[in-house]
């Protein structure tokens, strides 16, 4: 905490407009504010946070000229446009903040804390001579995995041939080539992405929404490579819970419906905030749930099924049958759903936040990754933490996977494993645990800048 007579710190947090990135950034801001720092929260106009949940922050909307997150296909163009469009506004505001500081009698030194997707902030910080810290909202294991791509380029082995995708990557156990984030990009797209993330000014530290024991090996490699402090302060929804920041309205009927179900009987199915799929894949999901004989909550995010507004692609008799056994909603209060005693399994796309939220509640997972880091997370869930089952989206397969999780010895073992990890996380986030210690260290580090 800033003490009397000590120079104060103004932290400028720069968030990206993705659900899985915005929420942890707000949680981080709340924690740092509780430690006495002033928080300026810069964000794009797309998917803005609700200022009323954080009355002590100064919000700084950055005009971005964007109307959506680009979907999975246009993600690189989206990132480029986001950064190009926000950059001049962010730069102007930072210069203004610096000038105000120079003129003020109450001196505050400025520290930039930015989402890794908002790479423009790192280069502006470098130009203005401000220290910058990168916040990572995906797993640490992504970094060593992603770093294999330049090597594949060098050896002219990129894009990876289809025949190799199921093979293990030498030195990256337990990952197969298909698990590497962005492995399906073209050579040109991959080079573009690498260029975008290469900043000439290195950060002074990283803040990672992960837990030390869960990703020890990847974190050791990251520390060795970057030689700056890496603060592992996750899972932020436990270490610094905040009011919900859902971009879509949460359907709270999920909780009253869950209250009427038996313990550990319900399967919760959701593919997160970005993944999209064909009606055929979504229909297989629907049949899998309908035939599973387990009660379920299925989140179908509006627009997540290609060419459809919501569930109009499903046959009416199937919808009627589904409504007898389960609930279909547009967006759920996911953290509360996973924490509910009636939930016994999570059929997920394995986004990093969903993974952490399930792990924290000891809920075993059915893993159906769609893109980016999700294959890697699914691989860790199934092969390292052994609390998840990888599935393919075919009706018979889905039904049998659900049965394996809910009714087999294998499922029971996965549940035990999930609960063991849950216990370890409780220790990490409690007083004296690794995440709490890392949060204290982060505060001391910022005060040392
Ligand atoms: C994707 C990636 O897969 C992720 O790893 C990356 O870091 C960000 O982009 P996303 O699809 O948003 O993320 O998934 P995830 O990281 O799991 O985040 C989704 C968030 O939305 C979670 O916090 C989840 O609780 C919330 N959510 C999802 C709801 O609150 N309600 C829902 O119905 C569905």
From TrEMBL:
Signal peptide: none annotated. CDD domains: GT1_Gtf-like (cd03784). Coiled coil: none annotated. GO terms for molecular function: UDP-glucosyltransferase activity; UDP-glycosyltransferase activity. It holds the Pfam family UDPGT. Keywords: Transferase. Belongs to the UDP-glycosyltransferase family. This is UDP-glucose iridoid glucosyltransferase-like. It comes from Lactuca sativa (Garden lettuce).
């Amino acid at each position: 905490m800033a003490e009397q007579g000590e120079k104060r710190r103004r932290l400028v947090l720069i968030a990206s407009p993705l659900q899985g990135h915005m929420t942890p950034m707000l949680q981080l801001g709340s924690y740092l504010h509780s430690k006495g720092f002033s928080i300026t929260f810069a964000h794009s106009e797309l998917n803005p946070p609700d200022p009323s949940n954080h009355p002590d922050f100064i919000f700084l909307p950055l005009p971005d000229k964007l109307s959506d997150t680009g979907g999975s296909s246009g993600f690189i163009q989206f990132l480029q446009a986001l950064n190009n469009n926000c950059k001049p506004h962010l730069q102007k505001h930072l210069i203004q903040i610096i000038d105000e500081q120079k003129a003020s009698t109450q001196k505050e030194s400025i520290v930039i804390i930015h989402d890794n997707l908002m790479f423009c902030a790192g280069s502006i910080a470098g130009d203005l001579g401000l220290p910058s810290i990168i916040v990572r909202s995906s797993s640490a294991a992504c970094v060593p995995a992603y770093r294999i791509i330049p090597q594949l380029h060098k050896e002219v082995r990129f894009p990876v041939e289809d025949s190799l995708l199921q093979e293990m990557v030498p030195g990256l156990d337990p990952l197969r080539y298909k698990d590497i984030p962005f492995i399906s990009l073209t050579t040109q797209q991959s080079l573009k992405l690498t260029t975008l993330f290469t900043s000439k000014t290195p950060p002074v530290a990283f803040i990672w929404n992960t837990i030390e024991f869960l990703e020890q090996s990847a974190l050791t490699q990251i520390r060795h490579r970057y030689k700056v402090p890496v603060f592992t302060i996750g899972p932020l929804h436990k270490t610094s819970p905040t009011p919900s920041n859902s971009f879509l309205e949460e359907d709270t009927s999920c909780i009253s419906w869950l209250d009427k179900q038996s313990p550990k009987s319900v399967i919760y199915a959701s593919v997160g905030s970005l993944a999209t799929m064909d009606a055929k894949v979504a229909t297989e999901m629907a049949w899998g749930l309908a035939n599973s004989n387990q009660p379920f909550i299925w989140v179908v995010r509006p627009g997540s099924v290609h060419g459809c507004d919501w569930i109009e692609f499903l046959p009416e008799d199937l919808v009627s049958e589904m409504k007898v056994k389960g609930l279909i909603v547009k967006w759920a209060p996911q953290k509360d759903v996973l924490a509910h005693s009636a939930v016994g399994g999570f059929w997920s796309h394995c986004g990093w936040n969903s993974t952490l939220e399930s792990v924290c509640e000891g809920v075993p997972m059915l893993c159906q990754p769609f893109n980016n880091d999700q294959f890697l997370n699914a691989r860790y869930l199934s092969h390292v933490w052994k609390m998840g089952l990888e599935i393919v989206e075919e009706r018979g397969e889905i039904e049998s996977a659900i049965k394996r999780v809910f009714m087999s010895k294998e499922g029971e073992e996965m549940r035990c494993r999930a609960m063991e990890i849950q216990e370890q996380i409780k220790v990490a986030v409690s007083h004296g645990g690794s995440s709490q210690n890392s949060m204290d260290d982060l505060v001391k580090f910022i005060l040392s800048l």
